[in-house]
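call fold(seq) -> tokens
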Amino acid sequence: SRAMQGIRHFLSEMKQLPPSEVIRVSRMYRNPLWKVGFRVVCELSYVIEMNLFFSITHFQFGETLYQGGGQFGPILRPQLEFVIVHSGGASVTVDGDAHRLIEGYAALVLSRRRLLYSYREDRDTRVSWCEATEGLPPALSVPGLRTFPLALPVSRRMLELQKIGVDLGDDAGLASDALRRALGVAVCQEFLYQARRLRSDRPIHQAVR
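ret:
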């Protein structure tokens, strides 16, 4: 429909802006109709994001210690993963854009073409991760995610969900796979929930170090 085409066009325009600019523009307008329209578009983008998460059929959890630096990647395919930096730090390059990840922060990383992690050389870095391994669409693009920061202070729920996933290990079977998938979707949703609270200027959980 024309309405949906307009929404897609709006989202594609927002995708070109940095998150800080999108937030600034959204607060500039005092017209109630514009505010309602912006809210509707944001909620619809949330539905699109959730459809992406629920289309994923398999998640994998893990934890790694990088001693004295190192790299992971490059991953040359569409990739979606949730990462917590428990100690140390890293730089992540997503489709050519570099971002810094510090201790006590979590990131929801979405790449379409190329993903590379580089870890600090002056200290050890411990990370845990949740990777979507099956069910990602070939042409991965979720414009709504571009309106959020890539990294946030980790919340207690993120830590708890991630720990359950890591503790599952490589347990096989329908029940383990179903639980792993539910945990993967939940940790992504928790990240977006905290991002929305941050965007609306309400306090979020303090970083747990």
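Strands lie at 58-66, 70-75, 79-87, 89-94, 97-102, 105-111, 115-119, 125-134, 151-153.
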